[in-house]
Design goal:
443 residues, alpha+beta, Jelly Rolls, Rhopdopsin 7-helix transmembrane proteins, four-stranded antiparallel sheet, 14 helices, 10 strands, 16% strand, elongated, WLS-like_TM, transmembrane
Length: 443
């Protein structure tokens, strides 16, 4: 939800001269807000009288004092203007319109009204060249109706995921872990992580004036998404490899996905902590700090994509002649492509093609612009896991008709271990897929 107030109206209401448009002070009051609006952004948009086509930029400083209005109508200091040094912002204008500048961001709303006093520094020379006609201050927050929808859907997904997790565990309890396929083993890990992804402590965001609930939400989501990335690597490699030791099989994949997870956790935690400590904080202040993490993130993400493509190509080249494995490959690939295509389309439609370049930390967070976008993102990943849990669960006939279902995947896609499907169930016949040429073929 967005509302705005004009800077000229603020100056006139406080009997201040319009000549102070380039410096202020601008005493502005927020509209009535509740904790269900989640967060509040104050954004300034300047309008100039420039008539040429020149694009011009100007760095300037912002100093802000914040006071909250208590239920007893008393002003409670939240942030004094002399508590922190002036924050630098960059003004970029084309003709008579300037790009929005985020003045402050409140990550937790404790009071129903706030008073902001904004001072601008460094725009006097800009005023001489390009006269500032007015400054519009926008107040952006979440709609309380959206917050209620988000809470209900999180709760519904959480309960359904818990039920699916229990059901999937019960279907596998009659089998030894050794007989589980690699997909079934990973589902037993991804489903509990999906419970955390749905955030069972989401309500603490509205009950605690702390950065910890938001940080935990970011940790839960990053952990689940990175586990999903690791799952894709292990499945495409594990279908060709029966010996999956920690050092030779899992460690190389952890060395690729681990830095991606660490960068995401570090950046999200650092930003949420500083924004809670100082509402005027912007990730752009730590350009060098975030740039190094951003570079590391994209470096390992590029390695991940390259490695995944190699595993997919090798898996299809070696296993496409085996109907059972070919079906497993096609299924996991189809679902993966659906998830990635929908996720990328949502990202591009929301942020544009330059999202990962200019708004890497500020916008690509766990926030959503509409209820439809939230349900699309959350529903996509939840139903993706539900579908895999249904397909990879052993059928009821497996226990009683092992002889029939062993070589007939139509009854259940995954009913036996990889070794049983190829070599049978005898322990002595279980051998790696890649055998030496001197070994005799088994009958």
């Amino acid at each position: 939800k967005t509302s705005h107030v004009k800077g000229s109206s603020v100056l006139e209401a406080h009997n201040l001269s319009l000549d102070l448009m380039a410096q202020g002070p601008f005493p502005i009051q927020s509209p009535s807000i509740t904790v269900y609006r989640q967060q509040l952004w104050v954004i300034a948009v300047m309008q100039t009288e420039n008539s040429d086509d020149e694009v011009y930029e100007k760095p300037f400083q912002v100093s802000i004092s914040i006071e909250g209005i208590s239920p007893g109508h008393k002003a409670v200091p939240v942030l004094r203007s002399d508590r922190f040094h002036n924050r630098t912002r960059h003004l970029r204008c084309a003709k008579q319109t300037c790009e929005p500048v985020t003045v402050l961001h409140l990550s937790y709303l404790y009071f129903s009204h706030y008073l902001f006093t904004v001072h601008l520094y460094g725009l006097q020379s800009f005023l001489k060249l390009y006269h500032i006609r007015d400054i519009n201050f926008f107040f952006k927050s979440y709609n309380p109706g959206f917050t209620q929808i988000e809470m209900w859907f999180r709760l519904i997904f959480l309960m359904v995921t818990f039920g699916v997790t229990c059901w999937f565990s019960l279907t596998l309890r009659t089998f030894f872990i050794h007989d589980w396929s690699i997909e079934q083993r990973w589902m037993s890990v991804l489903l509990p992580l999906l419970i955390l992804y749905n955030n069972p402590i989401f309500s603490l965001t509205f009950l605690m004036d702390s950065w910890v609930p938001g940080m935990l939400d970011a940790v839960f989501q990053a952990t689940f998404l990175c586990a999903l990335l690791l799952f894709w690597l292990c499945v495409y490699h594990g279908l060709r490899q029966n010996e999956r030791r920690l050092l030779t099989f899992y460690l190389p994949k952890l060395l690729i996905v681990g830095p991606v997870w660490l960068c995401a956790i570090t950046m999200a935690t650092w930003q949420k902590y500083n924004e809670h400590l100082d509402p005027t904080y912007s990730y752009q202040l730590d350009t060098s700090y975030f740039y190094s993490f951003k570079l590391t993130f994209f470096l390992f993400l590029g390695l991940y994509v390259t490695y995944l493509l190699c595993l997919i190509l090798r898996a299809y080249s070696e296993l496409r002649s085996m109907p059972f494995f070919d079906m497993r490959l096609k299924f996991i690939t189809l679902l993966m492509l659906i998830v990635l295509s929908i996720s990328m389309s949502i990202t591009v439609s929301r942020f544009g093609l330059g999202a990962l370049e200019d708004n890497f930390v500020a916008d690509l967070s766990t926030n959503y612009a509409s209820s439809a976008q939230f349900m699309a993102c959350y529903g996509l990943l939840n139903f993706y896991l539900y579908t895999m849990a249904y397909v990879y669960s052993p059928s009821k006939k497996t226990i009683f008709e092992t002889g029939i279902t062993k070589d007939n995947p139509a009854f259940s896609m995954i009913n036996d271990s990889d070794e049983d499907v190829i070599y049978g169930s005898d322990e002595e016949s279980r051998q790696p897929l890649n055998r030496n040429r001197n070994d005799d073929d088994s009958d």
